[in-house]
Amino acid sequence: MIKFRNIAVLTSGGDAPGMNTLVRSVARSALEQGVKVYGVYEGFQGLMDDQPADPKSHFPGSLINLDAYAVTNIIDKGGTILKSARAEKFKTEEGMALAKATCERHNIDGIVAIGGDGTFRGATDLTNRGIPCIGLPATIDNDITATDESIGFDTALNTAVELIDKLRDTCESHARCNVVELMGRNAGYITLEAGAAAGASGILTCECPYSEEEIFKNIINAKKQGKRSFIVVIAEGVKFKKEEEGVKNYCEDFAKRLETATGVETKFCRPAHILRGGIPSPRDRILASQMGYEAVRLLLEGKSRLVVCKQKSGIISLDINYALILDRMYKNKLKPGDLDAFTTEQQAEMRAFCAAKAAEFAEMYRVANAIGAYPESE
């Protein structure tokens, strides 16, 4: 088993509320075991660059010593103190070699990589080259199939609901509808749960079929019975799917069609990256604290190539490659040979997991839209 002297923690990909809480948890958990912790500035890019600090430009250096004081009072901070950057070069052999050389130069025995599926692929590649890595899921999209909840999702959900509630106030004052497009890439979790929590009159995601006509009909029925304000929530994944079909400005045009069909004045809102910022919720802070602690425990036990997940049974860990292929399976993005490394039983287990997850989403979608609908008036 490796005797860990130094570990590093990095954040990669899109930022998410709670990343700083993860950094804090990893640092404090490792320091408690007498292990030195480096924070990697700008993710995998910093790991390749290994630049010294430059006081003139306020650049802290690619590797930052994370002692107990360095992570004090960051538990409630949004964004990531370690920053993030896109690192295309890291996908190449040259980039990998640079990152490995940095680890060897500074005697870094293992890495905790915080981010999404792209981050986990990078962590897998580093592990394959002799640098043990553990992945921690942090993305507001909640689109990492292996975990029921990723860090940042709950905060983004709360932000979305708060924004929708505020829009409803002005919609009620002026008898309007607001069509809201929410982030999530190709995943509709924020849209589904925010729409359900805010009592939307219609929810559209690319995971489930929807009918514009049914939504228009629902709003017309509700208007006849005295309802003044309406909210329709659309996942940005629907827009992306429509763009692939050659349709531009789907969400904005949907708002115009809704106004024409229902006679209700309709506004369009795209909060966009607002959902990525803000103070992490207590739920995200607690989950991040648990996951960070577990990542360090696994690493110091000599384990690697794992991703820490939250499932109904609690905090667990899964093989990163298993998690990545499970993700592709759920998203219908499997490539030839992806399943070759898994037994027939494992493949059946993966399919059952994906089917159950899809069914759970579909049932919540059905219930949310059913509750948001108005029956026809007599």
Show the helix and strand layout.
Blueprint: E1 6-11, H1 19-32, E2 36-40, H2 43-49, E3 63-65, H3 93-105, E4 110-115, H4 117-128, E5 133-137, H5 153-174, E6 176-182, H6 189-198, E7 202-204, H7 212-224, E8 230-235, H8 236-244, H9 250-262, E9 265-269, H10 282-300, E10 306-311, E11 314-319, H11 320-330, H12 344-372
Helix pairs in contact: 1-10, 2-3, 4-11, 5-6, 6-12, 7-9
Low-confidence stretches: none
Q: Whole-Å distance between the termini?
A: 74 Å
Question: Total helix count?
Answer: 12
Q: Kindly state the percentage of residues in helix.
A: 40-55%
User: Would you tell me which CATH topology of the largest domain applies?
Assistant: Rossmann fold
CATH class bucket of the largest domain: Alpha Beta
Radius of gyration: 23 Å
- Report mean pLDDT, rounded to a whole number: 96
Structure, described:
With 378 residues, this protein is α/β, with parallel strands linked by helices. The chain folds into 2 domains: 188 residues, Rossmann fold; 121 residues, Phosphofructokinase domain (Rossmann fold). Helix 2 packs across helix 3, helix 4 packs antiparallel against helix 11 and helix 5 packs across helix 6. It starts with 5 loop residues before the first strand and ends in a 6-residue tail after the last helix. The model has no long low-confidence stretch (mean pLDDT 96).
